[in-house]
Amino acid sequence: MSGTPATVLWGYTKGSRGRLGSLMLLELLSNAAVLIQPLVASWVLDSLEADEELVTPVVLLAVVGVLGLVLATISHYLLGRLGEGMVLDVRRGLVRGLLHARVGDVTGRPVGDVLARVGSDTTLLRHTLSSALVHGAVAPLVLVAALALMASIDPVLLVVLLVVLVVTSIAEWFALKRMYEAAEHAQDRVAGMLTALQRTLIAFRTVKAFGTEDREERAVAEDARAAYRAGVRQAWLDALVQGISIGALEVMFLVVLGVGATRIVSGELQVSDLVAFLLYVTYLRDPVENGADAATSLSEGLAAVSRVQALHELPAEHEEPAGTLARHEEGGLRLDQLCYSHDREPVLRGVSLTAGRGLTVLVGPSGAGKTTVLGLIERFDDPDHGRILLDGADIRGLPRRELRRRLAYVEQEAPLLGETLREAVLYGAPDTAEQDLDEVLRAVALDEWISTLPEGLDTEIGERGARMSGGQRQRLAVARAVLRRAEVLLLDEATSQLDGRSEAQLLRALLDQARVRTVIAVSHRYSLAAHADHVVLLDQGQVLAVDTHEELLRAHPLYRALTNTSDDEVSWRCARAAAAGGDGKITGQ
After folding, report:
1. Which helix (H) or strand (E) holds 518?
2. Helix axis angle, 55-100 relative to 5-12, nearest 10°?
3. How far is 253 from 277, CA to CA, in rounded Å?
4. Helix crossing, 133-153 with 155-202: angle to 10°?
5. 352 lies in a domain?
6. 79, 272, 515, 527: which has the fewest C-beta neighbours closer than 10 Å?
7. Angle ∠(65,68,73) on CA atoms, nearest 5
């Protein structure tokens, strides 16, 4: 859906327009009951003055009043319900779009801003999509009907009324024009505050450890103050709009009362007619206020639409036609001259490697392109040049969903999804048999720890696995991947937070997996590389060498120097310099 915010807003009502039309009719009937009341009241006064019976007009006045009240109550409830339903559809569409969008387009956005757009911005749409649209459409009709009835009573008083109405409407229009800009600015500031707070909460332990609570408080407070200033400006403009509309009614009432009294004295107007006319002026408050409220809500809603639509327009991952990859005898994965750039900066430069059944370990400094290789295999993005072959066929010939069904991936942070341990470990394979689950948990050395928990696998893990240690999260993430029984297992620093004993246990599990499937692991732990069938040495987006750990130690001075240093940029430069000092050059494949 694309176009102006107003076009997009109207598009959100698709599927609900029939109900909107019915509610408009109900609202018109409710207002019609109100508009009849001044005429009936005039009838009561005329009957009183003529000494006629009052039962019929009084009963009719009561019936019309009760009917209007009942219809207004039903209309208000149904409008609220319809608004919630339409916002539900918008939110579901947003979530669907986010989950099917390209990885980089979503991860590149601040989480707090995304949450604000899905949460508070769509909440602003609720009133706009129901009450504002209905009242915005009905209010002018009610106003025209009221003016027509007032014209039938006394055209002179109507002219006086219209002069005041036109002047105040012009002032209100200018205020509404500024209202839209203020609403959009206020929503942006709230999103900025939520983003800052979300960033702080994610790194809460770090904030505590470095004693930077006051600094973070000041940063979030500054964003909160910006949101406050924007909100105050919006509140002022909102109050101005409401004040103009209410003040206009007060002025109209007083002017009509004064002119009407003069016309009664001159004999040009009856008292009952002036009372009916004044009642209409009073009843104009609702359509005028509804119209002003609808205009204000529409301004806020259009501002929200601009922000919400930015998420709606995130391009989805291109989905290829359904198909299957032909299986060849060679099997496994092959990367053929992969080149990839991010923000025009080269990340991979002609990377080629083959990974068949067994364990292949990617090593190298931070920024060498190791994680990028795994991301391209998962098709989180596509290479600028080159191919990735699975079982001898290009993976771009397979729908992403089918491809990822044949892959299992453990990312570096090892995030967990689900509320309990059981939900987390079965996330990718919910139909796993209990015996298979127990077997995998033993393989990753989690069974003893789980047995000590009072609720076992039904223990809650907390948000992002906060109640577990980093090593426990990593082992659970590996168990989750293993249970998928995928052809290829991709591990990104899956042992980085394990102690020696836990690492040895997990290594045995990975080697068992490598006997029956392709395992590709990114690691800075050379204990993993020592057991690999192949070690791929990457630096600056290029493959420098592919061999076993022992052969690289023997023949490649850079690898040998790297195994004796920690993985930071200074150490890596020292390792490169040490290797160059050994034979004057860096050897490649």
Report:
1. strand 518-522
2. 100
3. 9
4. 160
5. yes
6. 515
7. 125
pLDDT at position 568 is 46
pLDDT of the residue at 330? 52
Bridge partners, residue 447, by sequence: none
231 and 341 in a common domain: no
- Give per-residue pLDDT as tens, 421-466: 898 888 888 888 999 999 988 888 888 888 888 888 888 887 666 6
- 325, part of any domain: no
Instruction: Outline where 212-358 has alpha helix (H).
Output: 213-265, 271-283, 285-312
pTM of the full structure:
0.69
Strand partners, 348: 340
Q: Which two tokens stand for residue 132?
A: 């504002």
User: pLDDT digit string (tens) for 345-377?
Assistant: 899 999 999 999 999 999 988 888 999 999 999
| All residues at 6 or more sequence positions from 328 whose CB lies less than 8 Å from its CB, including other chains | 391, 392, 393
Q: Which two tokens stand for residue 339?
A: 């080149």
CA distances from 411 to 226, 416, 484, 577 (A): 36, 10, 15, 31
Q: Following DSSP, what letter does each residue of 83-116 receive, concatenated?
A: HHHHHHHHHHHHHHHHHHB-HHHHHTS-HHHHHH
Residue pLDDT, tens place only, 42-54: 888 877 777 777 7
Inside any domain, residue 145: yes
> Looking at 258, 278, 312, which one is the last position of a domain?
312
* 219 and 289 together in one domain: yes
> Which tens digit of pLDDT belongs to each residue from 287-334?
766 776 777 777 777 777 877 888 878 887 776 655 554 454 456 899
Judge if 159 and 247 occupy the same domain: yes
Within a domain: 328: no
The Cα 7–Cα 538 span in angstroms is: 51
Q: What is the pLDDT of residue 581?
A: 54
Cβ atoms of residues 465 and 427 within 8 Å: no
Contact 97, 143 (CB under 8 A): no
Find the domain containing 264 and state its range: 5-312
- Alpha-carbon span 500 to 513, nearest angstrom: 20
